[in-house]
Amino acid sequence: MMKTLRSIILFYVLVFFGFNVSPTVSDCSYPIGAQIQPSYNPGFTVFYQNTYKIVNNTRTNEVYILYCSASAPAPNVTGVSSAKYFQVPVKNVATLDIPTVTFLELMNVYSSIKYVNNTASITSPCLQKNIENKSIQNFNSSNSNDINVIFSNPTQSYNDNKTVNVNIGDDLTPLQKLEWVKFFSLFYDKEAVVTKTFASLQSIYLCNTKNLANISIVNKKTIAWVSYDSNSNQFEVKRDKYHAQLIKDAGAYSTELSVSTVNINELHSIINNAYIVIDESQSIASFDAWQRTFGYYPGQSDVNIPDFITYRRVYRVNKHVNFDGYLDWSESSAARPDLAIQDLIAIQYPTYQSSYITKWLYIFSNNDSPILLTSNNCVNPNQTQTIGNCSVINFTGDSSSTNSTVNNGLYGSKKLPPIAEAMIITFSILAGLAGFAVGAWLVLVIRRKHQERFIELKDEPEVPEVQMSNVTEPTNTSV
C-alpha cells in the first residue's frame, strides 16, 4: 500500500513540477481527440505530453514512457529513473498474461502477438490458427530481441526492461476490468478506436443492469459462486469485487458470508438456500464426483438435497474449452463483461432474451459436455470479437406458469420462485372450491326437480288393486 501511495505521489509531482524533457524533433503528436482517460479507477493513469505519454501502473508500481516520435530519441524525463521506455505503436508483442489476448482482439491487433506463455492454453480460434501457422510460438528469454513489449503479470518469473506487468484480478469490478482495454490501446496508439469500443461494451453492460433493476425483491434469485481446492481440502465461496458486482448487476443476490474459505458444514449453511450455484472446481470432473465432494450425494446421512440440485441448477463456466481443456472463460471474460452479465441473466430468466445462447455458462448438473473451440471456428480473422446491442425494456421477471417448473430448453428446468408457487397453489385451491360449490348447487337443483316429480306422481288417479284370490289359473286343454 505504501509503495502504491509513493508511486502515485511521485507521478503527480513529476506531472506538475518535475519534468525535464530534452528537446526533440516532433513528427507526431497526441491531440485532445486522440487522448483517453480511465473512468472507473482501474489501477492506471495516463498523462499526455506533445509527443509522448506517461503511464503509471499503480497495481504493479511501474511507470512507462510511451513516445511516438520515430526520428527523435526517447524523451529524457528526469526523476523517473525506474521508468521503462517504449516507442509506439508497438508492432510485435509477447502475451504471457492470458486475459491480454482478448483485449488485443478487441482492438483487432492480435496479429501483433508473436509469442505466448503456453500455446496449449490459447482458446481463441483465430490465435489457434496462427499457432498452427507457426506465426505464434512459445516464449523464452532468447525471443526478447524480436519483440517490442512483453505483456506479463506478477506470477511470471520473466522480467526485463521490455516487460509490462498487468494485474487484472478479481479485486476489480467488471467495468474496471474492461477499462484495461484503454491501457493496452496506449501501446498501439489506438485510443480513438478503443474509446468507441469501450463505450459500446459499457453501454451494453449498463443497459442490461438497468433492465434487471425492476425485479421485485421477492422474485430476486440468490447465486452462490463456489470452488473446491483439493490441495487444502477447503471450499471457497466467491465474495470478491468482480463476482459480487457481476451478480448484483445481473439482478441477483450474492450469498452472504464473512469469510471466503470455509469447511463443508459452513458451506452448506451458506449455499443451501441458493437458487443457482456456479462451480469453478477444476479438479472435479463429473457431477457425481461434485456431489460427493460437496456432501450432497443421495444416500449420505443427514443431507437434505437442496433445490439447486433437484432442479438442475448447478452451472459451470466451462462451456467453451480448447483441445487441451483450457477454459475460454479464463481468457475472455475479463474483456467481455457484456457477455458475462447476459450469461448470468439468462440462467435466471430464460425469457429475458429467449434467443440468447450463453457464452460460458452451462448446466453441469446435466453432465453436459463442453464445446470444443478449434481453429475451424475462426470464421472472420478480421473481426474476431463481435459486439451486440441492448434495448432498454421494463422487465420484471419471467411470467408465471401453471406448472411448477419452466422448461427453458438450453438452460434446463428451473423451479419457479416461491411466490409463484404459492400463487399456483392458491389458484388451485380456489379452483377446487369453486368446482365443489358448482357441484353442490347442481345436486340441490337435481334433488328439487326429483321432489317436484314425486309430488306430481302422488296426485295421479289411483289404480285399482288386483286381488290375487280372484285370479283363475288357465286350464290346460292340450291332450
Automatic annotation (TrEMBL):
This is Periplasmic binding protein. The chain crosses the membrane at residues 422-446. Keywords: Membrane, Signal, Transmembrane, Transmembrane helix. Residues 1-26 form the signal peptide.
